[in-house]
Design brief:
It contains 13 helices and 22 strands. The chain is α/β, with parallel strands linked by helices. It has three domains: 216 residues, 3-Layer(bba) Sandwich (FAD/NAD(P)-binding domain), CATH 3.50.50; 111 residues, 3-Layer(bba) Sandwich (FAD/NAD(P)-binding domain); 116 residues, FAD/NAD-linked reductase, C-terminal dimerisation domain (Enolase-like, domain 1), CATH 3.30.390.30. Helix 1 packs parallel to helix 8, helix 3 packs antiparallel against helix 4 and helix 3 packs parallel to helix 6. Bound molecules: flavin-adenine dinucleotide and 1,4-dihydronicotinamide adenine dinucleotide (NAI). The site of 1,4-dihydronicotinamide adenine dinucleotide has 25 residues, from helix 6 and strand 18. One of its GO terms (molecular function) is dihydrolipoyl dehydrogenase (NADH) activity.
Length: 468
């Protein structure tokens, strides 16, 4: 039986990054993945294909609605869904084979098949062709990720009732896409199909977007998305869906108890994801789980109740984000090599890739109020920014929240073009414990979108914003 210093189960952004970092630090590493391609949910059916489609649909929207303002006339703008999907598949194939290359480069042994604990140190790997082999590891990392939550009233059939796995691979634009859950997937994939011509209705249990994130930022985003044609039904329950040929009737109930039927052609169920531990054998060897079914680990240590077994990424508590999984993978690999790995959860950015994009780090106003923290607010609008004007992208705002006494940054909330790239500055600022004044006094190149962040920081520091 082959023996490794570290065995990683699951080759998503948590697992493959942990494997690379452990190998860099001199460990003999194996990685087990049941999919044929590496990269996990994120590269195969998550972050990357969804962003490829968001980018394609943004180009389509631009050609249809925005180029005219720049004095550019294009002929009839058409979409070729097949070609769009082929491009998306090519992007996916390039990034997943990139991970394959990285495994080879770092001399990581790759096993294809389902990994299952047969003891605290032994993992059996069953491949599709029925073969099984067993390997042994001193330390084992569970990085098995997550899968979509399914609920009895909405049984997924992959054709009419679908998850994100299917919604990134439709072969035609639905006439009416009903989305259950106004979370990140609902907003991103809802945006894709709305831009391509679908009527999109999003049914949400809660009264607002983004759960606990900043409420004013959420309602501002909601208004922008409504202008783009997305319809939201908040505080609405879904009782069931009846498939009738190629159509579907969704029974909903509004807050006041009124029941009605929504007629559509597809129902995307995006109500969250659950940790993936099916067939892993974790329970059988005595690994403890949280009440919500995630693997229980010591915070910032990633160690389960069995000392040589660790877990990272979507399968443990915390936000289900690729960069969170990656950072946990790096921190854990460093700890296993005797270094001081650490993840600063306060500095993890959230990004929603609608257009404009939404990105934030830290607390919203409601959370600060609930914690009794006194804070200052600074704001700036993209419409006052010269680069936004040049780009013809006036929608968006930045809100900076800093401590009333110390001015230390507590939360920064951006809605605006390329907020996904701009939020990196804020994540670094949080890592360095920066104040609003630190941002305000740092030179930001002119003319750039990032100047809106600086203006909001000036406003938060002492109301000395120059351009508004
Ligand atoms: P995963 O990426 O889920 O990888 C786990 C891997 O383990 C899988 O490949 C699985 O096949 C394998 N596996 C499971 N069990 C076994 C077993 N027993 N044996 C062998 N292999 C096994 N996050 C972002 O930060 N940004 C985004 O833009 C973003 N967009 C997303 C869009 C969509 C549509 C979805 C669904 C998710 C998105 N996410 C995004 C979330 C992101 O994909 C996850 O947070 C991330 O992939 C988690 O990484 P992970 O390594 O923990 O698990
Ligand atoms: P989510 O947790 O973001 O949102 C689910 C939404 O569904 C919530 O608003 C919830 O209130 C609602 N909901 C739950 N049950 C419901 C019901 N029965 N009826 C109506 N609404 C209901 O989950 P989502 O969108 O499925 O995404 C899963 C995870 O994937 C996200 O939490 C996120 O971590 C990750 N992701 C990240 C992305 C990014 O970083 N840009 C993009 C896509 C996904």
């Amino acid at each position: 039986m082959e023996n490794f210093d570290v065995i990683v189960i699951g080759a998503g952004p948590g697992g493959y990054v942990a494997a690379i970092r452990a190998a860099q630090l001199g460990k003999k590493v194996a990685i087990i993945e049941k999919r044929k391609t590496l990269g996990g949910t994120c590269l195969n059916v998550g972050c990357i294909p969804s962003k490829a489609l968001l980018d394609s649909s943004e180009e389509f929207d631009k050609a249809k609605h925005k180029l005219g303002d720049h004095g550019i006339t294009v002929g009839t703008v058409k979409i070729d869904i097949k070609k769009m999907m082929e491009r998306k598949d090519k992007v996916v194939s390039e990034v997943t084979s990139g991970v394959e290359y990285l495994m080879k480069k770092n001399k990581i042994t790759r096993y294809m098949g389902l990994g299952k604990f047969i003891s605290k140190t032994e993992i059996s790997i069953s491949s599709d062709d029925g073969k099984t082999e067993t390997i042994e590891g001193t330390n084992i990392i569970i990085a098995t990720g997550s899968t979509p939550i399914e609920i009895p009233p909405l049984p997924i059939d992959g054709k009419t009732l679908i998850t994100s796995d299917h919604a990134i691979a439709l072969d035609e634009v639905p006439n009416h896409l009903i989305i259950v859950g106004a979370g990140v997937i609902g907003l991103e994939l809802g945006s894709v199909w709305a831009r391509l011509g679908a009527k999109v209705t999003i049914v949400e249990l809660l009264p607002r977007l983004f759960g606990t994130a900043d409420a004013a930022t959420a309602s501002y985003t909601q208004r922008l998305l409504e202008k783009q044609g997305l319809t939201f039904l908040f505080e609405t329950k879904v009782h069931g869906a009846k498939v009738k040929g190629k159509k579907v009737e969704v029974e909903i109930e509004a807050k006041d108890g009124t029941k009605s039927i929504l007629d559509g052609d597809k129902v995307l169920v995006s109500i969250g994801r659950r940790p993936n531990t099916d067939g892993l054998g974790a329970k059988e060897i005595g690994i403890e789980f949280t009440e919500r079914g995630r693997i229980k680990v010591k915070q910032n240590h990633f160690q389960t109740n069995i000392p040589n077994i660790y877990a990272i990424g979507d399968v443990i508590d915390g936000p289900m984000l690729a960069h969170k999984a990656e950072d946990e993978g790096i921190a854990l690999a460093e700890m296993l090599a005797g270094k001081a790995g650490h993840v600063n959860y306060r500095a993890i950015p959230w990004v929603v890739y609608t257009w404009p994009e939404v990105a934030w780090v830290g607390s919203g106003e409601e959370e600060l109020k609930a914690q009794g923290i006194e804070y200052k607010v600074g704001k700036s609008m993209f419409k006052a920014n010269a680069r936004s004007k040049a780009m013809n992208e006036p929608d968006g705002q930045v809100k900076v929240l800093s401590d009333k006494k110390t001015d230390k940054l507590l939360g920064v909330h951006i809605v605006g073009p390329r907020a996904s790239d701009m939020i990196a500055e804020i994540a670094v600022a949080f890592e360095f414990g920066a104040s609003a004044e630190d941002i305000a006094r740092s030179t930001h190149a002119h003319p750039t979108l990032s100047e809106v962040i600086r203006e909001a920081a000036m406003d938060a520091d002492a109301k000395w914003s120059i351009h508004s």
